[in-house]
Design brief:
The chain is of the alpha+beta class and 190 residues long. The protein has one domain: Aminopeptidase, CATH 3.40.630.30. The chain is built from 5 helices and 10 strands; from the N terminus they run H-E-H-E-E-H-E-H-E-H-E-E-E-E-E. It has helices at residues 10-15, 25-33, 66-72, 92-107, 127-131, and strands at 16-20, 43-51, 54-62, 76-84, 113-118, 135-139, 149-153, 159-160, 172-176, 181-186. The radius of gyration is 18 Å and the shape is globular. The termini are far apart.
Length: 190
């Protein structure tokens, strides 16, 4: 839970550094603290937020599915993970996103669009993206003819996104997948 009333002001900004990093132990711990608790598929950029040399946040960009790249007509990256320590005040997420955008514009000029998703099944509505001036771009299932499902182990509830990932011998049940809010940020004109 973020401290109430305190904001990520100039004193906080002066005390932090945002820099590229790799999948090392302290970064992995932050990813495990994220609600998804795992790394995205193909990671292209990891930036960490350090305060006095100690990691307090991470933002991870990954390659999205082919359909997403086609949708936005050029090199597109997905903001796949964003995590900030609970003791860091509100607005830190927006600051980290803005610094990541500046970094990508400077060091990865081929990237045209960033995309991310807010999962309403865990209470996310995209507030941090709206605050960072991203554009709402519908929901994940807007263009689908039929709803998507996950597969869940009937005994444990563990979810699998593809039938092929379900281990043999497990009794499964189909669970409707929640449609997520989609947000984009255009780095460069099409």
């Amino acid at each position: 839970m973020k401290p109430t009333g305190e904001v990520f002001n100039k004193y906080w900004r002066e005390s932090v550094v945002i820099e590229p990093t790799t999948r090392r132990a302290d970064v992995d711990d932050m990813i495990k603290a994220h609600y998804l608790k795992k790394w995205p598929g193909v990671t292209v950029l990891i930036l960490q937020m350090l305060q006095y040399g100690l990691p307090i946040g991470v933002i991870v960009f990954a390659i999205p599915p082919r359909e997403t790249i086609k949708r936005y007509g050029g090199e597109t990256w997905e903001l796949a993970r964003l995590w900030i320590a609970d003791h860091v005040p509100q607005n830190a997420e927006t600051y980290l996103i803005s610094q990541a955008i500046k970094y990508i514009r400077k060091h990865h000029q081929v990237v045209k669009t960033l995309v991310s998703y807010a999962d309403p099944s865990v209470g996310h509505a995209g507030t941090v993206y709206k605050a960072a001036n991203w554009i709402a771009d519908g929901r994940t299932d807007d263009d689908r003819k039929s709803p998507r499902n996950d597969y869940a182990d009937a005994a444990t509830g563990k979810k699998y996104s593809r039938r092929s990932q379900v281990p043999p011998g497990i009794e499964i049940k189909r669970v409707p997948r929640v449609s997520k809010h989609r947000f984009i940020y255009r780095l460069r004109a099409k």
